[in-house]
Design a protein that fits this description.
With 436 residues, this protein is of the alpha+beta class. It is built from 13 helices and ten strands. Helix 3 runs antiparallel to helix 4, helix 4 packs antiparallel against helix 8 and helix 9 packs across helix 13. The radius of gyration is 23 Å and the shape is globular. Bound molecules: adenosine-5'-triphosphate and magnesium ion. Magnesium ion binds next to helix 11. Keywords: ATP-binding, Kinase, Mitochondrion, Nucleotide-binding, Transferase.
Amino acid sequence: MSWKKSERLMDTIKHYSGFPATGVSLRQMVQFGERPSTGTLFRASQFLSEELPIRLAHRVQELGDLPDGLNDIPSIQKVQDWYSQSFEDITTLPRPNLPSDVRERLLRPMKQNGRDSKILSQTTHNPSVKQGQYRSQQTNGNSNGGGKGSSRRYYASTDDEGDWPPELNDYNKRFSRTLEGIKRRHDSVVTTVAQGILEYKRKRQRMQIDNNIQSFLDRFYMSRIGIRMLIGQHIALTDQKQAIEPNYVGIICTKTNVRELAQEAIDNARFVCEDHYGLFDAPKVQLVCKADLHFMYVPGHLSHMLFETLKNSLRAVVETHGQDKQEFPVTKVIIAEGKEDITIKVSDEGGGIPRSSIPLVWTYMYTTVETTPNLDPDFNKSDFKAPMAGFGYGLPISRLYARYFGGDLKLISMEGYGTDVYLHLNRLSSSSEPLQ
Ligand SMILES: Nc1ncnc2c1ncn2[C@@H]1O[C@H](COP(=O)(O)OP(=O)(O)OP(=O)(O)O)[C@@H](O)[C@H]1O
Ligand SMILES: [Mg+2]
């Protein structure tokens, strides 16, 4: 059955797109603790059932307003329909009819139990993000509990003595299942948009995308990271499967072991490199990192960024020195721990990048690979084999992941020698999502 958007739906979407997104910080996301209560989850569902439609609505509007006929490209319209459909899924999900005492109880703050305040005391403002740098609103404070007019609050711990009516739990489950469906629907958004841009470039005979489209893609993919973070977090919190794994709050690990993740990314990147070039032994990578270095982060995000930068380095090393070399120069991964940041430097001797090309490496679709691998819509299926390179998405998307939690990704090259990539990860974790 194919889905059709109604005029009424588009009007509602337009209305929602008039509200600003509300940014959430990593530290607000971990306030839920390892086992959030039914009431707390319900409050979070309520927040998300308004916040996600606002964010989806912004994207629907923006896709529709793309200039120069880009909004008419079929792949782009397909993605726009996915966003509209997901908007509809959330806004039409029936809410439980709760008796007034339950509604009041939901707004009543829980007695302090000390756990949240411990996590909070370890965090302060991120000085690298300027006040007012992003347009998203901050959620108001992070004190516990309700207060008047506070339904627009992501985390609110609720009074949890005694049972909640079963409707709450039912709603939480239904809401979480709806989110699962949405997450799956949007799995291939990145490749479908990329496909759309390719079609557009072909149709308009453009070599590079202009600044407008570049900043649209930055906003669009950043927004996607945020939406998927909130959705992934909420599903994991509702399942409470993570309670088996200590140190996890949803998909956030409060003690992400940096060294272990880096070693894993190195092994994976070397494996892909051996496979791609038919090498017996990929170029070596040396890891310098304290064994017990850990901080609060989303392991999946960190793995992604490390894997992408390492693939780039290994490719540069192999292609600069020739595939049939026996020995390659060693790539170094150095990890430092500061008060503000954990910084990871990936240093290779892969010949560097000419200075004039540096701005290009941050543009989507910029790649020095001759033939881009096929953009298969099944790209995200689990049996998908990661390519060595070829989409020109590795660096720009990794930088968005870094910035999403208040970090950054920088690249410095010495043409004729090699490249240093600096991955700064903010460990204070209080900066709100950088949404525009
Ligand atoms: N360490 C490096 N040394 C030399 N050139 C690099 C390095 N990292 C990136 N580049 C250059 O920047 C380009 C863009 O990198 P990016 O990772 O964004 O895309 P890609 O590797 O071409 O494709 P993919 O999307 O699969 O990662 C590369 O094609 C390469 O020319
Ligand atoms: Mg790459």
